[in-house]
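Researcher: Good morning. I'm working through a list of sequences from a screen, and I'd like to move beyond sequence-only analysis. For each chain I'm collecting a predicted structure so we can compare shapes side by side. This is the next one on the list. No need for commentary yet; just the structure.
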Amino acid sequence: MAADRGTIAVIGAGSWGTALGIALGRADRQVTLWARRPELAEAIAREGRNPEYLPEFRLPESLQATADIGQAVAGAQLVVLAVPSQGVRTVCLQLAQSLERRQGLVSAAKGLERHTGQRLSEVVSECVGRTLGDRIAVLSGPNLAPEVAAGDATVSVAASRDAQFAAEVQAAMSTPLFRVYTNPDVLGVELGGVLKNIIAIGAGISDGLGFGDNTKAALVTRGLAEMTRLGVTLGARAATFGGLSGVGDLIVTCAGNKSRNYRVGYELAKGACLDDVLQSMAPQIVEGVETTGAALRLAAGHEVEMPIATAVHQVLFEDVQPAEAVASLMTRAWRDELDG
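Model: Good morning. Structure tokens for this chain:
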């Protein structure tokens, strides 16, 4: 299927939205990048770069910035939502006033809504589903924003209940350096992108405590097991967690300092205070911190055990020392690997 060269609106001028805008604009897509703050949109337009997020990368000439969400969406073939997870509902309610039925929306955010526990595609559907129907997709995969902006070869997955729309997203967003696959398992693709952030905090804790590759390999493997366990219980396909949005995203997010979630865990293991760590990363958002509690409430509601996520939550919010959390994991009751 040939790619449609229509305009793509990227809603959100943080690191991820900016990186997507760069990648798409570099491949001759016409991109409108929406920034919430007018002063940021003006600075982007004036400087030809985003001075607050990924300032080292020049923006392609085919990318235009605006703080007018209606202007950003007008005439766009696709609307790509790349805002922090806790802002998705607010932004979607704004979008609902401007979207047209012929358009489609791609949620590229990763997280769970804190106060409802809903997946972001559920939030999107509540806000704009009356207009768009099933023309809603999620985009997820091993996609570190700086590497996407730099033009490193990257792959991602577009999942939608509407297979034809997923194919449209694939055609519109695929470039020679950003390859998009499709997958009908919206639930699995979305949960992979959500839950890996929690495990990545654990990986940072492991490295911060000075443990080696054996420990991280065990953490990633057992983390994938609990991600899959929850996903399958909720109705996702196990195979999805063995793919790009599952183990692929998990590997890259647990690898090291390019991941903000990893960095939080690492700094906590070194004795830093969570508030100080988050403040040092501002204005960047660390999605795994907000996601941990919502994910555990979701798991508890379906009687799914998530020991690593539980340990991460204890370190983040319950004043449990990282070394104590590791000890609690290592001394759990013995069991068969395949039984959980």
